[in-house]
């Protein structure tokens, strides 16, 4: 079967379509061909010159060379450039959203929202970089004085995922640049176009050569690039968002050089609805958390625990909302749920649903691929009668499937919610202030959404515990990941 025709979106500024790496301020050539496809129809969007270890080494040399001058600039000057970059993103939001939808599949409305979210990190750290304060410590010895300085860690590397191809770059790069570090980025092989357009806008904002490098690569070459950066003593910090399995591998590769790591890994978020909850608000939160980006987010709700007293009412209302969601290609204005990223994602979603049904779960809504739309679409799904034995109870689905478990007591809900190796995000709904405090404290997760399904923001720390990784992005905590402490003891 022949490949579908090209599906390049129409851009207001065609020069935002970049198809090669940015290294040392120059748009270069690659060693391999990286084909970018639209997940909604399989059509080829573009062909990108992919990088390998040779280009990764060149980017590393450039980043090391650019570091002294960038580190020496004032935080205010670095902030001005970050603000300009944010302005460029906002001014070109329509084109960035079109590129994102073409290669990632999310609805245009969500893509435009991601552009705003991405710009917010640049804006936040443009200001936060000016608030990196040291300390003067009173000494017990009158003949000494102690100072504590915060200094940039040095050259950094970032490996970003496909599900948020713009925001995950700025969330990592903005604090690093604000702190005075230089950064190399390896975007996901599925979504290099958004990353390269972002780099083009950074160039327009005036970032000096070598301060930011962006290297698209195939899956095979990505392994070589990651290994090179992990093993290099020049790279002092690595940030990665992706699977726990890959995170473990990167941590092992980084161990000999003892470099700093920020790992945002797998999630398996519980969503708890207590008898005293506002059921309508909980349903709205469930829609926002579960079905955004077709359920392909690391913090989307994966397990719905609903107390017996409101279980039926919650399920009925949620079923009505889920059944009304419009599935389709992301570039269609009415679309609310787009395609899954690839065939492997589709296979996992189908296997989870099939396993649950085979073990006695009931399909209230959906449960089938939408073959009438193409091979990448799956109906928004609601399962009831789910038990802890089913795969949806222990594995992250990463798709538009909401499994509902019925529970009786608060203690049971907390025990089920914490019965996971992962600890990224969690959610619960209650109007009992005492319960709100008890449950928020008891949940073993790095983030808790209380009476809301949307929790991420540039000004708040983002990250998990247990097998969901370590380190934080966002908030004033995010810039600390890129700063070393230096104690200076002065003898009088």
TrEMBL record:
Keywords: Oxidoreductase. Transmembrane segments: none annotated. It comes from the Bacteria. Residues 34-488 form the Aldehyde dehydrogenase domain. One of its GO terms (molecular function) is succinate-semialdehyde dehydrogenase (NAD+) activity. The keyword RNA-binding does not apply. GO terms for biological process: gamma-aminobutyric acid catabolic process. NCBIfam families: SSADH (TIGR01780). Belongs to the aldehyde dehydrogenase family. This is NAD-dependent succinate-semialdehyde dehydrogenase.
């Amino acid at each position: 079967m022949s490949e579908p025709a090209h599906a390049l979106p129409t851009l207001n500024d065609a020069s935002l379509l970049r198809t090669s790496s940015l290294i040392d301020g120059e748009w270069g050539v690659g060693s391999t061909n990286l084909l970018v496809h639209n997940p909604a129809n399989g059509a080829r969007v573009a062909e990108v010159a992919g990088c390998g270890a040779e280009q990764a080494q060149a980017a590393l040399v450039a980043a090391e060379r650019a570091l002294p001058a960038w580190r020496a600039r004032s935080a205010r000057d670095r902030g001005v450039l970050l603000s300009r970059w944010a302005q460029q993103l906002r001014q070109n939001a329509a084109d960035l959203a079109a590129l994102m939808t073409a290669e990632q599949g999310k609805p245009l409305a969500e893509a435009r929202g991601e552009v705003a979210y991405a710009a917010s990190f640049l804006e936040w750290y443009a200001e936060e970089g000016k608030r990196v304060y040291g300390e003067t410590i009173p000494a017990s010895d009158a003949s000494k004085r102690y100072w504590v300085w915060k200094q940039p860690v040095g050259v950094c590397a970032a490996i970003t995922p496909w599900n948020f191809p713009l925001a995950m770059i700025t969330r990592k790069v903005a604090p690093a640049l604000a702190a005075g570090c230089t950064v190399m980025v390896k975007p996901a092989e599925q979504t290099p176009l958004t990353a390269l357009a972002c780099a083009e806008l950074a160039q327009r904002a005036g970032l000096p050569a070598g301060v930011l490098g962006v290297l698209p690569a195939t899956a095979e070459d990505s392994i070589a690039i990651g290994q090179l950066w992990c093993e290099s003593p020049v790279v002092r910090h690595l940030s990665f968002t992706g699977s726990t399995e890959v995170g473990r591998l990167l941590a092992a590769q980084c161990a000999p050089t003892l470099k700093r790591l920020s790992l945002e890994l797998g999630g398996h978020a519980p969503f708890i609805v207590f008898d005293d909850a506002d059921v309508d608000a909980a349903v709205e939160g469930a829609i926002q958390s579960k079905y955004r980006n077709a359920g392909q987010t690391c913090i989307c709700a994966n397990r719905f625990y609903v107390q017996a007293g409101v279980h039926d009412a919650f399920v009925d209302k949620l079923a009505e909302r889920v059944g009304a969601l419009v599935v389709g290609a992301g570039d269609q204005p009415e679309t609310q749920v787009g395609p899954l990223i690839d065939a492997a994602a589709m296979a996992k979603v189908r296997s989870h649903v099939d396993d649950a049904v085979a073990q006695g779960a009931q399909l209230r809504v959906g449960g089938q691929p939408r073959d009438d739309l193409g091979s990448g679409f799956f109906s928004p799904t609601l399962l009831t009668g789910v038990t802890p034995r089913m795969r949806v109870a222990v594995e992250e689905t990463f798709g538009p499937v909401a499994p509902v478990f019925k529970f009786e007591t608060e203690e049971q809900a907390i025990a089920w919610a914490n019965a996971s190796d992962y600890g990224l995000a969690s959610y619960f709904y209650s109007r009992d202030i005492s319960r709100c405090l008890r449950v928020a404290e008891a949940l073993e997760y790095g983030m808790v959404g209380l009476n809301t399904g949307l929790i991420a923001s540039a000004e708040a720390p983002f990250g998990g515990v247990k097998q969901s990784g370590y380190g934080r992005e966002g908030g004033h905590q995010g810039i600390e990941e890129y700063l070393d402490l230096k104690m200076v003891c002065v003898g009088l």
